[in-house]
């Protein structure tokens, strides 16, 4: 199949039309065109549920997790190219309302069928497809996983780097680390020192009422020059008066999502009182939410996660809004496997991503990643946007098969 696909690739490349009349809109690569029977059509879609052991257990409000369950979407085109993507929904509905099981249901019963009879000739068709998925309300993670698999398949089919399809460029991205709540301040300081030694460009600390000033000051005193930020995951209320003034004294890079997960208005009121920039994460569910947040003054920085806003096209628009309104921008992580990780890195190729990402090397999360080679620093504290013609070429299929605990294939064409 690989040889067949290579032959086909050469044929496709010969037919790629450099359309001089195409007007790239907002930096998109609109000159990649595959026409006629060379156009991308999906032959089959396979949904897999995989079970990946985590390197270190993570503590959540639901207890301690030692593994991550993930849906992998795999598409095969009629020409044999493979597109792959990852759904970032978690096991429990604690970050957004979606879970692995709701995402599976939405994909299987409402989304995957939309690939039937679809013909993709240009990136504009990918964008139309992305917009069509908006007919399914909410469920952004399920939508994103299918949408990103189609972009990935298009990159493989046309042998175009994903970041070029998105309108980005090869670059190095600075990487920050996110530290969870540790058993003691001493342990947290150890982790922070190690992160500095490993080259991380900023440190983020998870905070909650009563567990905020002490850990932040402990890191600040140890590493005075290290950019430092706090992520509150919606743990505070506006009325937590005393803490805001003290947090504002710490010269933090930003305070991430202090108030309710679905709020913009209260954040705007809080931002007016603080010198420290607020960053919105959970509140940003769509590209338009970036515009709304900017207009309201709800934050000065956006943590963008492609899974949470519905995929590459919606992320692209969110990026453009952030640039337009002068907001800082970075890409967050959702404990992705290498598949989602490489997609996040491709997205960071866009010029508006001007702050360190949370997307780190594979080894921080997994014993063994499903991509080979795994994602590693290009130099300490940096990841390089790679020339990747779709992520499937990097997947370790043997390992992916081993981790797969459930799968379902939908055939469209033979
Ligand atoms: Mg966050």
Automatic annotation (TrEMBL):
It is an enzyme of class 4 (lyase). GO terms for molecular function: O-succinylbenzoate synthase activity. It comes from the Bacteria. InterPro entries: Enolase-like_C_sf, Enolase-like_N, Enolase_C-like, Mandelate_racemase_C, Mandelate_racemase_N_dom, OSBS/NAAAR. Signal peptide: none annotated. Keywords: Lyase, Magnesium, Metal-binding. Coiled coil: none annotated. Residues 185-277 form the Mandelate racemase/muconate lactonizing enzyme C-terminal domain. It holds the Pfam family MR_MLE_N. Its cofactor is a divalent metal cation. The keyword Lyase applies. The keyword Transmembrane does not apply. SUPFAM superfamilies: Enolase C-terminal domain-like, Enolase N-terminal domain-like. Its EC number is 4.2.1.113. PANTHER family: O-SUCCINYLBENZOATE SYNTHASE, O-SUCCINYLBENZOATE SYNTHASE-RELATED. NCBIfam families: menC_lowGC_arch (TIGR01928). This is o-succinylbenzoate synthase. It comes from Alicyclobacillus fastidiosus.
């Amino acid at each position: 199949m690989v040889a067949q696909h290579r032959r086909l690739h050469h044929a496709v490349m010969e037919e790629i039309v450099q359309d001089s009349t195409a007007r790239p809109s907002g930096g998109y690569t609109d000159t990649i065109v595959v026409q006629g029977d060379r156009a991308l059509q999906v032959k089959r879609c396979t949904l897999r549920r995989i079970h990946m052991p985590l390197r270190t257990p993570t503590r959540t409000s639901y207890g301690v997790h030692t593994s991550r369950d993930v849906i992998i979407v795999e598409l095969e085109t009629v020409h044999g190219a493979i597109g792959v993507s990852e759904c970032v929904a978690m096991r429990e509905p604690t970050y957004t309302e979606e879970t692995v099981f709701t995402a599976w249901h939405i994909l299987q019963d409402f989304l995957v069928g939309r690939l039937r009879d679809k013909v993709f000739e240009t990136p504009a068709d990918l964008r139309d497809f992305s917009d069509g998925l908006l007919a399914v309300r909410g469920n952004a993670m399920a939508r994103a996983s299918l949408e990103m698999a189609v972009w990935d398949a298009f990159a493989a089919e046309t042998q175009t780097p994903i970041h070029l399809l998105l309108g980005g460029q090869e670059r190095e991205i600075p990487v920050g680390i996110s530290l969870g709540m540790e058993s003691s301040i001493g342990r947290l300081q150890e982790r922070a020192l190690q992160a500095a030694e490993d080259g991380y460009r900023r440190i983020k600390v998870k905070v909650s009422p009563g567990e905020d000033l002490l850990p932040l000051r402990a890191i600040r005193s140890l590493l005075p020059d290290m950019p430092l930020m706090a992520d509150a995951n919606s743990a505070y209320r506006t009325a937590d008066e005393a803490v805001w003034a003290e947090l504002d004294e710490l010269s933090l890079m930003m305070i991430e999502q202090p108030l309710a997960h679905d709020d913009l208005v209260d954040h705007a009121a809080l931002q007016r009182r603080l010198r420290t920039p607020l960053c919105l994460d959970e509140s940003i569910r769509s590209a338009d939410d970036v515009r709304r947040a900017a207009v309201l003054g709800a934050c000065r920085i956006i943590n963008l996660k492609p899974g949470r806003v519905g995929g590459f096209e919606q992320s692209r628009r969110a990026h453009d809004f952030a640039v337009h309104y002068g907001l800082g921008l970075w890409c967050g992580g959702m404990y992705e496997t290498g598949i989602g990780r490489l997609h996040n890195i491709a997205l960071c190729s866009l010029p508006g991503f001007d702050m360190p990402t949370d997307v780190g090397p594979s080894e921080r999360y997994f014993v063994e990643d499903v991509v080979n080679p795994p994602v590693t620093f290009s130099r300490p504290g940096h990841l390089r946007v790679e020339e990747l013609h779709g992520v499937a070429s990097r997947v370790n299929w043997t390992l992916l098969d081993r981790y797969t605990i459930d799968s379902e294939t939908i055939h469209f064409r033979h």
